[in-house]
Amino acid sequence: MEDNYSFQDYLRQSLHQLFPGSKDDGAKNNVLINCPLCIKEGRADTNHHMSICLGNDGKPLFYNCFRNTSHRGILTSDTLINLAWNSPIAIDPMLLSAIDEFSKHNSSYSKYRLIKDNKINLSHLNTNSAQINEMKRQYICNRIGLDLPFEELLKDKIVFSIKDLLWRNYIHQYTRDERVINLLDQHFVGFLSNNNTSISMRNMVYNTVNLGKSLNYRYIKYVILQGMPAGYYIIPSICNITQRLEIVISEGHFDILSIFYNLYNADRYNRIYSCIGGNSYLNIIKYFLCDMGIVDPIFHIFIDNDVKKYVINELKKILSPLNIEVYIHMNGYKEEKDFGVPKERIKDYSYRLI
Ligand SMILES: [Zn+2]
Questions:
Q1: What range does the domain containing 312 cover?
Q2: How far apart are CA 263 and CA 316, in angstroms?
Q3: In the listed set 60, 85, 112, which residue is the last one of a domain according to the structure?
Q4: CA separation (Å) from 115 to 139, 234, 307?
Q5: Does residue 1 sit within a domain?
Q6: How far is the centre of ligand 1, averaged over its atoms, from the C-alpha of 20 (Å)?
Q7: Is the whole-model pTM more than 0.90?
Q8: Are residues 16 and 88 in the same domain?
């Protein structure tokens, strides 16, 4: 390579050849491609969900899919080969060695934890229309069998009014049309993700009011800022990640709220409470270990009773070599299938998996 032809230029041009249809971002710091890992998993991508950082300003070479938090990492010769599985041309071996050479000299990985880089700041959430909000508060409280005030639920990052949240944070560009926003505002209650980039919204009139094809789901994910990892719903707590931490994971949002209040007495110290909300247990565990860098975790996984045995066996197979304690919990109360219920309907049955 000549002096005036930088590694970044070389990498950019090579990526364009390997991934037809790719493009540069405005500042030419990243190449945006259709996520080959999504495509491999059978999810078509024509909207350039993956960005590959070219390593300007001493940054490491990241690749990051905005649709799936497990499609990301450091670009190395191995990961590039994996990404280019569908590429029309073979990868130049010189490119592979140039990537590894670049990464070897770039030792500042630890500065770039995705969790810190990708967090957007939102101001304290407040509420508007008193009547609707009271209805939402009662809906949540009924689900978990408690009478909690607004202030407490706001601490848990529950969103009563999506319009209010966006307005208060000067976000005037909606990612859904205005009619949808109005319906979300009226009929849905939201759970803001840990990095504040998305809201999981529960339809309170599911099966009773027809809101139209795009909204007739139990849950809708509203993306606040496009092009950011969605994050997970995590109840805010104070943790020292270098100490032993209990990580409590449930299937759904109401499960974790009920577990937090009814089984853990709302203890916000050195424990993490989160839910997978449509993602997988394995992905969220990887997120805590790899992205959050938690060194000494104990996992308590509160599964729905219909979770298939092979899912648990797979977890055991993958986590056993890591020597991490894992406990599985199920609600043994008759006629209940999960933990998203009042305390008197929970019979916590648990066993040690690993
Ligand atoms: Zn992807």
A1: 234-352
A2: 25
A3: 112
A4: 32, 13, 29
A5: no
A6: 16
A7: no
A8: yes
